[in-house]
Amino acid sequence: NQQLPLQIGDTVHILESSEGVDFFEGRYIFLVINKTGEGVITNESPLVQEVTSTLREWAGIWRSLFVSGNTKMVHQVMDMMHELIDWRKQILSGTLPLDELKELKQKVTSRIDYGNSKLGLDQVVRDDDGNILDPDKTSIISLLRAHESTMRQISSRRAQEERTSFLQINLASVHSHSLFVAVRNFVCIIGEETEVFMSLYDPTDSSFISENYLFRWGKELDINKLNSLRVVFTDLGSKELKREKICLVCQVVRVGYMDLKGTNTKKSTSGLRRSFGVAGMNISCSRIKYLIERLIDFGVHVSLKMLNGDIKQLRQEFPHLVDRSTAVARKLGFPEIIMPGDVRNDIYVTLLQGEFDKGNKTTQKNVEVTMSVCDEDGKILENVIYLGAGSNPLKEYRSVVYYQIKAPLWSETVKVAVPIEDVYRIHLRFHFRHRSSSESKDRCEKVFGMAFVKLMRSDGTTLSDGLHELFIYKKVEDVSTYLRLPSGADDCSDVASPSKMLPGIVQTKDRFYISTLVCSTKLTQNVQLLGLLKWRSNPSMLRENLKQLMKVNGEEVVKFLQDTLDALFNIMMENSESELYDNLVFDALVFSSIRLMADRKFQHFHPVLEAYISQHFSATLAYAKIMKVLRYYVDNVQNEDHGDPSLKAMKSLEYIFKFIIRSRVLFAQCGGFFSLLFVLCVFLQNNFVACMTSILQRMNDDHYQYYIDTFKNPSDLVDFLMETFIMFKNLIGKNVYPSDWVIMNMMQNSVFLRAIAQFASTLNKKFLAHSNFELQLWNNYFHLAVAFLTQESLQLENFSHAKRTKIISKYGDMRRSIGFEIRDMWYNLGPHKIRFIPEMVGPILEMTLVPESELRKATIPIFFDMMQCEFHSNGNFHKFENEIITKLDHEVEGGKGDDQYKALFEKILLDSCRKHKYLATPGEKFVTVVKRLLERLLDYRMIMNDENMEDRMSCTVNLLNFYKEIERQEIYIRYLYKLHDLHLQCKNYTEAGFTLQLYANLLYWSDDQCAPHLNFRGTHHGSTQRELKENLYNQIIDYFDKGKMWEESIVLCKELVTQYEEQIFDYEQLSSILRRQAQFYENIIKVMRPKADYFAVGYYGQGFPSFMKNKMFIYRGKEYERREDFESKLLAQFPYSEKMKSTSPAENDLKQSPGQKLQCFAVQPIFEQRTCFQNKNVNDQILSFYKRNRVKCFTYSRPIRKGEKDPENEFANMWIERTTYTIEYELPGILRWFEVISTSTVSPLPSRVAPLPSRVSPLPSRVSPLPSRVSPLPSRVSPLPSRVSPLPSRVSPLMSRVSPLTSRVYPLPSRVSPLTQQRIDS
């Protein structure tokens, strides 16, 4: 069995196949497969290939974002990838029409470009059709234009997303809900065409909540319809969710004969709309996710799902449910919030009921109402009437016919959707006709009545919402005639007036009722608000309209918030030269717009006002007028006439200032000269560079040579080359184009590379000889070439594999080309090389650190050439050595260099030096120094970004010790301060003091001026060494005081006392330092200091960093830090390490293992008796410091067993092995730990004899004081029982305490209990 691991999207190319044994309806197929896809010609379109490669690249980035925990970007990238996957499916399906395919292609390319920008990837340049441009076939100017166009589109998209994100954040508290309904089946045996209306209904208020959703069902079952009958009821807010009950109502209307059971269908009237049935189900229970409801004689199977968001959000978040084929049924009314820019103009007309006289008929009429929308000329408007969502628009609407009913109740609602500009000239016309069940009679039936209603009133407002009784006129068809008649009771209270006004017009006694609901963001039913919105048509009424605005209902204002605010600011701007309306506009702005936001009823409109300010507000000069009126109200706040308006203005300050700030920002953007100048400069610079690059691209070698030959004067040629080199270097360093314009950057680099090569040839030909050598010109060339090589856009290792492959295949590695050119130019210098040392050491080092192996192999030998030049000139290469060490520290700390560079540097220079007669020894020594430095710098760089502060301190100490060894004082001081700062971050004040003390030790008590490198920090400065050292001492004393190391502070105080008293005679400072010194002495005696414990830690295994691998350290614990806590901290720093259970020395196999093994145990410091304390009764407070400080040796006692364990007495053959550890420096010091440099172990057998006599003599001196201490003994007896239980756990410490009294290794007595042993010790 052989398996080929594949991932989704991998290209598999079947190169060859062969048939084998029959198996499973076929044969074994043996394939020769090229999985890489290289060289494979696919039949996919270029756009599909681009989407595939983009998804692969984004997938890797998405994985990295997920690992790093960037949740926001993870979701954004995932959403974009899902969009591309869906669009890719649509393209591959091949079912899209050309116009939709073109539109989808634009969306795909726009999304790819935006996503690449969002993820910091390269910008793709395209033509107007979205096709990727080929740089070889496109001019540089065209590429520049394409880049700029793409960038504008991306910026627009980013700004739109930011606005959308802003609104989503602000709208988080205002939820828009939608109900998704999918019709699964319609089970009904009717035998006629059927119309099924679905809507949301509130039985408590007996009102419909939403408009209808209509789907038609034929006589036979249509399987294709089952998956396409979907609707979303939108704009549902919190009010709807709080309703006591909401029902999904289903009304069924059949379209056919009057009588469903009729037999003689040939003579019956067809096409009549007849009510068949109705049903409803309660959907207010939030737990219901899937409902099935069967009606009595028929059934409608539906599934329901509550979705959050408006229709735009639903299409983005639920594309599998809500697509273009899904019908949208809007709420009968406005949603809770109306965002600026949302335009709606729907007029809902409901046929309620009528009362009709039977006239000359023997039975009641079968009334059918036909509604149409007509203009002022009587012309019927086409396709403006909608029976419901999901239906096609109609020219006219025919109502349901009820059989022989005098007062039919229709309650049928239709939507009239006409352009806003047409509303002012249209009206609704209703025709009434009797429908007979017999087709022959029905043909003879005429319209027996007509009614109408205008949508606009004479005052310019729309028809008011609610019930309207319409007059029914007889035999009136001329539009010019009936439009002069009153339409109903709202127009005329006297029903007889029509006949009096127009002779011959007959008004019937029939009654007809409708209700209307206007849902429009542009048509208002309020006269006062309309007067403001149309203020230009009647300027003389402007003052009155502004005053009347404050009386308008708040609900009406918020519906037209954007139009209202636009009108107010237009009034202000169009009267900018006058202050006539400023106060009124300000009052209207405060009271009618902003103040509404403070009302709890309209608090959910806050985001709407925020959106208006950020997106739609455009009054650039409004800030001046608003500030002027605001200041007026502030100045007159005490005035009784202005007190109330001033107070209300103060309550609205938040939005007043937002309007002021936004207006001022817009003014700066539009009229800011400097911003405009900056944009113009950038535009001109980009165009200039593009034009210059285009010209250079077209120049061949002959053109360059011809241009160079035009300079007859060498000085003119020098000036030209100097200016060109400087200009190229500036253009490279300033990044003329954004980093993601990879095509423009690479085109520019390729052109510049060729130009630099041409100018280098000119240097060799004209300015290399001794007589005409131009040092500055050559120096500029080298700096330009190195700047070109090290620029960010050419560092291929920072790019993805795909991008790196594309660049190399098209342009090659330009770093290698320019690097080889620099090497050749250097060797061409001959005797002039010494003039470039040490100045060129840094640039050459920067070039060799570029991680390209061939480039390094070619350029590192330049260093040996520099060593030779300086050695032959000066007899040494100290300048070169000092410069390369200084530059290495800077470059490696900045992120350059690696282990490969260290190995290549060592190998190449060692090989070269060993072949040289005089440089073999000093060269080898120099290479060793650089190798050691690189090791420490690489360790330091690797660990500096780590959270482990102790590792960072260790690497810093390694470096500063190295620089002290090679006597590089300025770098040594720099790393001392880095260590000092690390200690302060960890609050290691004692260690920070010892670190600064190393700095102070470099200085003398003299009045010599400080060298510049000694004044490293502004906080510790001094003009003389004495002044600087004094400042450092005072800081160190403060640190020791915080660390309770008063003995160390006293030492420095004494040194300062000597200076103040005997050298500079500053008695004021002397008295101050003596007071501090006295306080330190007092602290030593009176203040209790916690004793620090010490721990030995071994790091074994190859998994640890080199500076701690297979080494043991002694750590000084923090105050009250137990061994268990210390171990937990170590294991947290190395989560993959394993704690060793044994305290024995590590074996070699363990040290060579690949993992991480941690060994940790407590050790005891060895107190070295100070000469001044011998044979003296010294206070324990004084001695306690020296017992655990200023120590270098530590001991650990390990119990071992000689022979087999005695079952009767486990202590019979128990012995003690004692190990002494010596560290490099005393603790405490500049670190809280130091490496163990030597270990000595005392074996049990010899040590039980020799040390015993030496330990006996001190015993009497220890016994003699006992009589004087007998009296306190009873007071110490009582606590003894409470401490008995822990004694077994303290056997090890007790055993270690035997050693000062007896031999280091003599065994425990076989019958001595731990308690007895403790008493012996005491």
From TrEMBL:
Q: Which GO terms describe its molecular function?
A: guanyl-nucleotide exchange factor activity; small GTPase binding
Primary subcellular site in the record, as a coarse category: cytoplasm
What is one term from the GO cellular component aspect held by the record? cytoplasm
Q: Where is the composition biased (Low complexity)?
A: 1251-1294
Signal peptide residues on this chain, from the entry's feature table:
none
Please state where this protein is localized: Cytoplasm
Instruction: Tell me which residues make up the DOCKER domain.
Output: 963-1322
Keywords recorded for this protein, A-Z: Cytoplasm, Guanine-nucleotide releasing factor, Phosphoprotein
Name the family the entry cites. Answer: Belongs to the DOCK family.
This protein is called what?
Answer: Dedicator of cytokinesis 1
Q: Where is this region: Disordered?
A: 1249-1299
Q: Indicate the segments forming the C2 DOCK-type domain, all copies.
A: 344-519
Cross-referenced PANTHER family, in alphabetical order?
A: DEDICATOR OF CYTOKINESIS (PTHR45653), MYOBLAST CITY, ISOFORM B (PTHR45653:SF10)
* Lipid biosynthesis found in the keyword field: no
Matching entries from Gene3D superfamilies are given as: 1.25.40.410, C2 domain, Dedicator of cytokinesis N-terminal subdomain
Tell me the GO BP annotations in alphabetical order.
Answer: cell migration; myoblast fusion; small GTPase-mediated signal transduction
Q: Where is the organism placed in the taxonomic lineage, from the top? A: Eukaryota, Metazoa, Chordata, Craniata, Vertebrata
Extract the Pfam families matched here: DHR-2_Lobe_A (PF06920), DHR-2_Lobe_B (PF20422), DOCK-C2 (PF14429), DOCK_N (PF16172), TPR_DOCK (PF23554)
Query: Which species?
Result: Eptatretus burgeri (Inshore hagfish)
Task: Kindly list the residue ranges recorded as spanning the membrane.
Answer: none
